[in-house]
Amino acid sequence: MDSLDKIFKAYDVRGLAPEELTPEVAEAIGYAFGQFAASERIVVGRDMRPSGIALSESFISGANRAGVGVDEIGLCSTDMLYFASGRLNEPGVTFTASHNPAAYNGIKMCLAGAKPVGEATGLGEIKENARRYLNGEFKEVADSGVNASINNKVDLLEEFSNHIRSFVDVSKLAPLRIVADTANGMGGYVVPSVFGSLPFDLTILYGELDGNFPNHPADPIQPENIADLKNAVVSLNADVGLAFDGDADRVFLVDNNAAPLSGSLTTALVAKAMLERSPGSTVLYNLICSKAVPEVIIESGGVPVMTRVGHSFIKDVMAETGAVFGGEHSGHYYFRDNYRADSGMIAALIILEQISKSQTPLSELRKPFERYCDSGEVNTRVSDAHAVIAFIKNAYDKRARATEIDGLTLDFGDWWFNVRPSNTEPLLRLNLEARTQEEVASKLAEVLAVISKADSVRS
Hints:
Layout: H1 3-7, E1 13-16, H2 23-37, E2 41-46, H3 51-65, E3 69-75, H4 78-88, E4 92-95, E5 104-111, E6 115-116, H5 119-134, H6 139-142, E7 152-153, H7 157-165, E8 177-181, H8 187-195, E9 201-205, H9 227-235, E10 240-244, E11 251-254, H10 263-277, E12 282-286, H11 292-299, E13 303-307, H12 311-321, E14 325-327, E15 333-335, H13 344-358, H14 362-365, E16 373-374, E17 378-381, H15 385-395, E18 401-403, E19 408-411, E20 415-421, E21 427-434, H16 437-458
Parallel strand pairs: 2-3, 2-4, 3-7, 8-9, 8-10, 12-13, 12-14
Antiparallel strand pairs: 1-5, 4-5, 5-6, 10-11, 14-15, 16-21, 17-21, 18-19, 19-20, 20-21
């Protein structure tokens, strides 16, 4: 595996900076993306990680060598980059490693209109041309001057903030008390701008931009990283807590009792709200969401469509179906009128609007949507994930309804589970749901025993 193979992932580029993702590599990727994008201009942003300044400058230099002009938006959340790509109708790139530790950086890419670029939709081509650039195959280009005059600096923060607010009726918002833990990430930049003109009493924890994450990791899916937020919600008697990841495209909510909401629960709440304003629409959910999600979509008059895990798959299906909204259990929420891109900020505002309109605390508003218990994601290291999945399918043959959209989902009626291989590690990812926590524990032990037996047979 060479250096580029190591940092090019299924959906983006990510690696240690500057050890793996060096300025030279960033320049090569900039040239390769400029070639691939087939556009006179691209838009480039970055998060608050210190390494992002030099990396983005090198990338822009590479793009210029490919004859492509750059609209620089500077500091941005990832959903702001997608907005910029849609608004300017240009391919886009942002330098971010999302929730990863401070030593990492990365590159998320899209085509004009925020259309996703992934392993099957261009990343492979970009990687190969970046490799050729590093090998000197474009020497005449590499030796030529860089025409930086074709670059512009563009400020889209205010326009982005207005766009986010357009998804709710601002006049219906109540003066709720909100705590937002932005974890020294990009939420500290965009949250004050979006919420600034709204009638909320807003407290921001760790709002200073600091890519070294001095307070806690910017990964809100880990329970220990929302402990400060939960304490603040209790001490301030807040109505809602919001936990953002490093690039602020994901959000996890905490209710007025400091109880977290799962991504599935948030998806169900937002789906119901979106169907109130777009009756009869299609709503997407990924295959590890709770069964409550399609139930709520049907009850709300919508059409549920299951998708694979991953933003590129969801955006493609959203384009095919015209779906108004799509949610992932991992905390990504996609909106048709947001260029089919994801934005945790929009999802959070929609739930705040629902709390305001119903005059019901979130701890009560959530109850009708909490119908099942789940295992969370359980990862098992296996020698051959695909062979283990085949063994599991055979072990449960004719006992459940099987779906093979992404790995294997087996639905037994009163419980179900999905197993799928990791894109980047020799891991099998298991998600299981049942009616009670006792059933979850029992069925989880059963399925893990089958996985263990399958892997021992392979070894």
